Amino acid sequence: MTASSVSSVSSISLGSPVSPVSPVSPGDPRPVDVAALAAAFADSLHSVGCSVSSEQTARFAAALAALMPSAVADMYWIARATLVDDHVDYPTFDAVFAQVFTGMTDDAQRGEKNQPDLSRYSMSSTPPPTKAPAAPDGSESSSSHQENRRQSQMTAADGTDEADLGEDESERVQTTTSATERLGRHDFAACTPDELATLGQLIAKLIVQSPMRRSRRRRRHHSGSHHDLRATLRRAHRTAGDPVRIAMRARQLRPRQIVLLADVSGSMEHYARAYLYLLHAAVRTTTAEAFVFSTNLTRVTVPLRHHQAEVALAKATADCIDWSGGTRIAGAIGSFLEQWGRRGIARGAVVVIVSDGWESGDPSILGEQMRRLSLLAHRIIWVNPRKQRSDYQPLVGGMSAALPFIDRFVSGHSYETLLEVIDAIAGP
C-alpha cells in the first residue's frame, strides 16, 4: 500500500454525509469528493494484492453518493459489498480498511494494545482479522490459492455468502461447499437423484461458447485488407473527386453452429439426464441444435429453449418416444444427415456426439455415416463415459469404426470432466 493512497483516504472525515462535491483539505469536516475517496481506497486495496476493477470502484463511488454514510460501520459494509467479490480477500480488506479509516497498523508498528476494536464492523460476534495476510508474491503456494478460489466459486454456485452468515452458518456453508466439490468428481452413474439434481443446477449455469469463423462476406472496417471502391468513390465526391480517404473492407467473425446428439438408450440411461442439462445450457446460451436418439432421432431444440431446466427436460423427455430403448447410432446419424445436415445445420459446425459406442447394427454402416458427417462438419467431438476407465480401449465395433473420424475423444463422466467437453467445443 502506498503512503500517498493511505494518507489521501485517511484524511477524509466521515463526520458528515458523503456527497459528490469538491475535495477538502485534511481535517475539514465538509463533504468530500466521492470519486477521489473511491479511487484512493481502491488503490490501497490493489497495492496489497486485492483484485479491484474500475467497474467495482465506480460502483463504490455510486453507492457512496446514493447512501451518504455518516458512520464508519456503514462505510465498511458499502466498501466490502462493492469492492470485494471473493471471500478469500476478506482478511486483507479488513486490515486495509482498519488501517486507513481507524488508523490501525500491524503488530510490528503499533502493538496490539493500540489496535482498535473492530467488532462493530462484523455481523457476527467474531471481529474481522486485524492483520493482513502476506501479499501474493509467491510465498503462498499457487495450489492453495487456486483451491480457495475454487471453493469460493462452488459457494457462489450454491447461492450462499459467508459474509451474511454467522459463525455456525459459515461452518455449515464450508461443509456444504466441500461436499459439492466431492460431488463434482463423482461419476454421473453413481449419483442419487438428489445428487444429480444438485449437479444439474451447476451444469445449468455453465456457459457454452461457440468457436468463431471468418464469414465470406466483407464489411467496411477501418483496418481491413481489401479496398471498398464504391465507398471510396462516394467519399471522393466530397473532395472534388480526389480520393483522400480510402475505405477498407474486412471479413467478419461469426460463431459456428453447435450440434449436439445425445444417446438416451438403455446403456446410457445413467448419463442421459445429466447431458440433457448440458444440452439445455447450450441451447439457452447459443443457437445450438440438440437431438437425442435411441432407435430413432428426435429433435429437442424447441422444448429445451424453456428457461427452467426441469420443465425443459420434462418436455424433451416426453417428446422422445424411445427413451431407454435400443441403440442405432448409424441410423440416427444417417437420419440427421438426410433431414437436417444437408440443409446446412452440419456444414462447418461443431458436432458433439454423446454415446458409449455400443452399436446394435453393422459397425461398417456407422463408419460410413461418420465419414459423411466428417465431410460436412468442422469438428467432431465424441463423448464416451466409458473412457474414464484406465484400461479402456475403443474395441467395441461401433466405437472403433467411428474413431478415425473423431477430432476430440473425451470421457465427460462427471461435472469436472464436463468442463473438458466445453473446452473442446470452444477450442481451436
List the helices and strands and how they pair.
Elements: H1 3-10, H2 34-47, H3 54-67, H4 72-83, H5 90-102, H6 107-110, H7 142-157, H8 167-184, H9 193-204, E1 212-220, E2 226-227, H10 229-236, E3 248-255, E4 258-263, H11 269-285, E5 289-293, E6 297-299, H12 309-319, H13 329-339, E7 350-354, H14 363-376, E8 379-383, H15 397-402, E9 408-410, H16 415-426
Parallel strand pairs: 4-5, 4-7, 7-8, 8-9
Antiparallel strand pairs: 1-3, 2-3, 5-6
Helix pairs in contact: 1-2, 1-5, 2-3, 3-4, 7-8, 9-11, 13-14
Structure at a glance:
This protein has 428 residues and is of the alpha/beta class. Helix content is 44%, strand content 11%.
What does this structure look like?
By secondary structure, the protein is an alpha/beta fold. The chain has three domains: 3-121, no CATH class; 214-254, no CATH class; 258-426, Rossmann fold. Helices cover 44% and strands 11% of the residues. The protein is built from 16 helices and nine strands. It has helices at residues 3-10, 34-47, 54-67, 72-83, 90-102, 107-110, 142-157, 167-184, 193-204, 229-236, 269-285, 309-319, 329-339, 363-376, 397-402, 415-426, and strands at 212-220, 226-227, 248-255, 258-263, 289-293, 297-299, 350-354, 379-383, 408-410. A six-stranded mixed sheet has the order 6-5-4-7-8-9. Strands 1-3-2 form a three-stranded antiparallel sheet. It starts with a helix and ends with a helix. Residues 1-30, 104-165 and 172-176 have low confidence and may be disordered.
